[in-house]
Design brief:
about 350 residues; mainly alpha
Length: about 350
């Protein structure tokens, strides 16, 4: 009789929630082994693309305003803690691991994400200082960030959460009536309505309020009311266009999961799914350019036109890549992105 070692360490076996999270990460890595190194390479290239002077100036501004930096860190950690606490309570009631004995408290599980974020910030600063991309004063950022994250965690953990009922996302999306023509000759053009509905769910008032709070807290004291309103409007418009872009990617994978076995081509699938979201992006960019021309003149219009053209090209490229990847049945079966977005 041979004695075999345990497949996992004993300390991990005594913590079923940590073991389940570890198995999920390992399965995700096995399904897409090239996703994580490719993501790390892209992040490294983006960091290297920034000039050393711009990065040093940004870090010096952060070190010169530690109170604002701590407030931003506290607000972000408070929102993260409140969301994780609601998720932990929901998991405690619905998860199949709820009945198992565990040695990890709920507070420790919720505090794991802020600690990981703080460790990531410290690691990035250390690497930047060793590479010569950050001044020695960048180490002063760690203390206000850590203090703000601690205060945000305590506030989010001790604050009452209220009702745990979740409003269905479908309440924020309009339901189009069924047309008789679609029953006789069904088309794929109805797929274009799903990214719009998903973006409306992601840009509901509860989510917009968080981004507005972060933007208004980041403004310095004494900012005029007109400038604050302009910043708030820019934040709302920016979040809406980002939600449209993310919704296009999400819906492409959700639709491709079902339509991959059919004979639908990539061009037809991409055009039917992306056209309405891209048209809305075009309308938003046109309105933003009109507002920029009215406020800033020809210079603002010229600069905004280049940004709008680049953004529309990015939307087309990301939509085409997502749809082509989603229709490949082999990549759908191994797609971590689709499973995470469910």
């Amino acid at each position: 009789m041979s004695c075999t070692a345990a497949p996992h360490p004993r300390w991990l076996m005594r913590r079923p929630h940590c073991l389940a999270a570890w198995l999920q990460c390992r399965n995700a890595y096995r399904r897409t082994p090239l996703l994580w190194p490719l993501s790390a390479l892209i992040i490294a290239v983006l960091v290297w693309a920034f000039s050393r002077a711009a990065l040093i100036g940004f870090l010096q501004r952060c070190a010169a305003h530690p109170i604002i930096l701590g407030i931003i860190a506290a607000v972000c950690t408070w929102a993260m803690t409140a969301r994780l606490e609601r998720g932990a309570q929901r998991e405690l009631a619905l998860s199949w691991l709820a009945a198992l004995p565990t040695m990890q408290s709920q507070a420790a599980r919720v505090a794991l994400a802020p600690l990981a974020a703080l460790a990531l910030i410290v690691a990035v600063l250390i690497v930047a200082m060793l590479a010569g991309l950050a001044p020695e004063s960048a180490a002063e950022i760690v203390l206000p960030v850590a203090a703000g994250m601690s205060a945000g965690f305590l506030t989010g953990w001790l604050a009452p959460q209220g009702s745990t009922a979740v409003t269905p996302g479908s309440w924020y999306a309009r339901v189009r009536p069924v047309r008789n023509r679609s029953e006789i000759r069904p088309t794929l053009l109805a797929l274009g309505l799903w990214p719009i509905a998903q973006a409306r769910v992601w840009a509901r008032p509860k989510i917009n309020a968080r981004w507005l709070l972060l933007a208004l807290v980041a403004l310095p004291l004494g900012t005029p009311a007109a400038k604050a309103l302009a910043v708030a409007a820019a934040v709302l418009v920016g979040w809406h266009v980002l939600a449209l872009l993310g919704a296009t990617v999400r819906v492409s994978f959700a639709a491709g999961w079902w339509l991959a076995p059919t004979s639908i081509g990539i061009v037809r699938f991409t055009g039917s799914l992306v056209y309405l979201a891209w048209l809305r992006q075009l309308i938003i960019c046109a309105l933003a350019l009109a507002a920029a021309a009215a406020l800033g003149g020809a210079a603002a219009l010229h600069a905004g036109s280049a940004v709008a053209a680049a953004w529309l090209a990015l939307c087309c490229l990301s939509g085409a890549l997502a749809c082509s990847w989603a229709l490949a049945s082999r990549s759908i079966a191994a797609s971590t992105l689709h499973r995470r977005m469910q």
